[in-house]
C-alpha cells in the first residue's frame, strides 16, 4: 500500500466490507514491513476507513453516531495477528539453536514497531470501544498494543520460550562478541545484566524475566487496571450499602 501507483482506492463510506478489507490489507502491510514509511495520504485513508467503520451519520438528526463495527475491526486484527504470528513462529522454529536468540529479538523488534504504528492507527477503537469494554469488565478485550502482547505470548513465547532461553544461554557461554551483544539486548529489555557466576537455573530465570519484560509489562498493567476497576466498584457498592 506504500506505493501510490498501486494503492487501492478508499472504498465508499457505505461499503462496509470494502472498508474492512481495505483496513485489513493496510494493517497486514504494516506488519509485513513495519519499517516501511506509508505516504501521508495512505495513512490518512486508513484512518478514514477506521472512522467510517466506527461512526455513521444519523440522517434524521444530522449528527454522527457510534455503530458496532469497532468490535469487527478488533476481531479482524486479532485474527490477522494470529495468522501472522503462526508464520513467525514457524520461521523461528526453523532456526539453528545458536541463531535462535538473534532471530527472536529481530522478530520481536519488528513486531513491536508494527504494534506501535497500529496502536496509533486504531486510536479511535481504543478510546471509544476498548475503554468501554474494560470499564464494563468485558473479558478478552485489551488496548491494541496490549492485544499485540497477549498474542505474542500465546503464539510465540508459549511455543518456543524454552528453546529461546537455551539459545541465549548458549550464546553467552561462548564469551565472544555475540555474547556481549546478547547481554546488551537483554539489558535493554529489563535493565538486568546476566550474572555469569549464577547457577544455571538462576541464570535461566533471569534470562526468562528479561525476555518476557517487553510484553508481560503490558499484560500485567492491564490486569492491574482491571483489578482497580473491580476494587473501585466494590468500594462504591459498600458505600451505597452503608447509606
From TrEMBL:
One family name in Pfam for this protein: Cullin
GO BP annotation list: ubiquitin-dependent protein catabolic process
Domain Cullin N-terminal: 22-220
Any GO MF annotation of the entry: ubiquitin protein ligase binding
Listed SUPFAM superfamilies: Cullin repeat-like
Family affiliation: Belongs to the cullin family.
Record-given protein name: Cullin N-terminal domain-containing protein
Phylogenetic classification of the source organism: Eukaryota, Fungi, Dikarya, Ascomycota, Pezizomycotina
